[in-house]
Amino acid sequence: MSDYVIETKRLTKNYGEQTAVNAVNVHVEKGRIYGLLGRNGAGKTTIMKMILGLTPITSGEVDVFGQNIKGREKRVYPRIGAIIETPGFYPNLTGTENLEIFARLRGTAAPNAVKNALDIVGLPYRDKKLFSKYSLGMKQRLGIANAILHDPELLILDEPTNGLDPIGIAEVRDFIKDLSTEHGKTILISSHILSEIALLADDIGIIDHGVLLEENSMETLKRKNSKYILLQVSDIPKTSLVLERQFGVTDYSVQDDHSLRIYNTSLDMAAVNKALVVQDVAVISSQLCNDTLEDYFKKITGGEGIA
Amino acid sequence: MKQLLWAERRKLRHSKIVWIAVFAVVMIAVIVFAEGQFVFKGSRYIDGAGWFMTAAQSLATFFVLPAVIALLGSYMICREEQEDTLKSLRLVPVDEAKLTVAKMIVAMVFSILIYLLLFVITFAVEAIMHFGTLSIQTVWGFLFTYFVNGIGVFFAISPIVALVARMKKGYWLALVFAEIYSFAGLFASMSEILKIAYPITAVFNLSGYYEATIGNKAISLVILLLCITLTIFILSGFNRNSKRIDVQ
After folding, report:
1. DSSP string of A175-230?
2. C-alpha distance from A53 to closest chain B C-alpha (Å)
3. How far apart are CA A52 and CA A63, in angstroms?
């Protein structure tokens, strides 16, 4: 059995002729936050719905906690908390009354579960305000409260910061981070906001037009896209030797037969160039690059739609 | 099922439709009371012991309560999709067939309670006006009639509730359909055959509002059971259909 809490294999969803999700392989590791990043309409919600069994799969497989969810809903759903799209609640009831209904239906044993969940998201307990009078941000908070009400192991949160003000976004972000680091929850979160995912996720999947373009750890992506010196030379092995022996540089990566990236940007490039020439290595170019994550995402997704 | 019934009852808190129903019952009582002020052969209708409790039933059943009960029933079923709570319920997970059954049971209880409320109001007025003339047997007889009316009307309108839920065009349609359906009962009551077979008037055959033979009562019972069977048939299709549509 794999260590993945969620694993999809060539997951595909067609609506008639249109392919909404195309052969997506997502791997969510236990205890980590996986950020699904993509522009609006990229297929994030559809993937989450398929993972949860809320929409039929055209082809492919989904394993949650190591097994297919189909037919095991009664055992698996109590281990999952989810918000999909906008949270739906009964408008004629207060937030507390709404949560009490879901707590009772779930058979949530903890007597203070509703109060605790509301406290965590910063909503008042036993408030008289009806859900129909809630602002979008309050609705979103109540949705999160409902998702964590039964203390699930896995959270699937579809754009949970939608409609929140900047302070609310920061609070929810801290809270989600805390759930993962302090309580060991596994979290799959989607967003079209790059900064949100960059600040929150341990692993990231970039989706565009239903295709998962990249899946990697955030650490690797940041490393790929931080400041670096792009060096184009005639002989890579000799250059590596010079960098390591004469300058003690180990933090570099070879890109192809003629270029490499040096991540130590404080390196004296004049001295490096001189040393390379002495070793009979032609230096074609040497330039300081400063690709941000945003530049990278724009490049691979075609450049639009990610805030 | 117990939890679902509890949840359905809780979902009706602060609900305007419940207050509309209570208001409708009070208005029926007021209108029938006003009607009772007319003089016939030297005395007011309302002065006859039991007249108020009798007259309120026909006005309520032909004009108002079936529509109100149908409105509440279809609202309870349609709201899960309209208010987007169905996906949250599925993630609990909640069995949709059981959920629908729970809703129908609560709607039936509501129907009984609404008729009993009308009974309480009309009885209170009768008790004030004719305390000496009302026998316990008469009162029990009316209580039984109102109780059976509550159940029977729910059976009679249940196909409308199911149909409107399946049509997904808004629960207010149930009010319109049920109003036409119950009003038509007034004309059905003029024919001896239709009186037995038309679901709304069949309720009166069963409850004892109309005098009926055992055979006629049996036919009326079969008609109402057919209504419930039709409802189950429509709703089972609705559950399959909603699963297919919702997920897209």
Report:
1. HHHHHHHTT--EEEEEES-HHHHHHH-SEEEEEETTEEEEEEEHHHHHHHTSEEEE
2. 9
3. 10
Q: Is residue B87 within 8 angstroms of chain A, CB to CB? A: yes
Tokens representing A70?
């189909």
**Which H or E run includes A286?**
strand A283-290
DSSP string, B70-117: HHHHHHHHHHHHHTT-HHHHHTTT--HHHHHHHHHHHHHHHHHHHHHH
**Position of tokens 């979902």?**
B11
Number of domains in chain B: 1
End-to-end CA separation in angstroms for chain B: 28
Residue range A91-133, pLDDT digits in tens: 999 999 999 998 888 887 677 888 888 988 888 888 888 998 8
pLDDT the model gives residue B246 = 44
Work out the angle between the directed axes of helices B199-207 and B214-246 (0-180°, nearest 10): 130
Give dist(CA B67, CA B180) in Å, integer: 9
A217: alpha, beta or left? (left if phi > 0; alpha if psi -120 to 50): beta
Distance from CA of A130 to the nearest CA of B (A): 9
B8, B79, B88, B99, best to mutate vs chain A, most A CBs in 10 Å: B88
Closest CA to B53 of B151, B152, B129: B129
B164 C-beta neighbours (distance < 10 Å), count: 27
Question: Tens digit of pLDDT for each residue in B10-55?
Answer: 888 888 888 999 999 999 999 999 988 888 888 888 878 788 888 8
Over residues A205-259, the pLDDT tens digits come to: 888 888 888 888 888 877 766 678 888 998 999 899 888 888 888 888 888 888 8
What does the block give as tokens for A202?
């341990």
Among the listed residues B62, B27, B55, B61, the one whose alpha carbon sits nearest the alpha carbon of residue B126: B55
Contact A218, A194 (CB under 8 A): no
A61–chain B Cβ distance below 8 A for any pair:
no
Of A54, A90, A93, the CB nearest to B90: A54
CA A28 to CA A186: how far, in whole Å? 8
In the numeric block, which tokens belong to residue B142? 């009316």
What counts of helices (H) and strands (E) characterise chain B?
A: 11, 2
Q: Which domain holds residue B241?
A: 2-247
Task: Answer whether 0.80 is exceeded by the pTM.
Answer: no
Q: How many CB pairs under 8 A join A and B?
A: 66
**In contact, A307 and A192? CB cutoff 8 Å:** yes
Is residue A163 within 8 Å of A136, Cβ to Cβ? yes
Write the ipTM: 0.78
Residues in B touching A156 (Cβ below 8 Å): none
Q: Rg of the Cα trace of chain B?
A: 19
Distance of CA A291 to the CA centre of its chain: 20
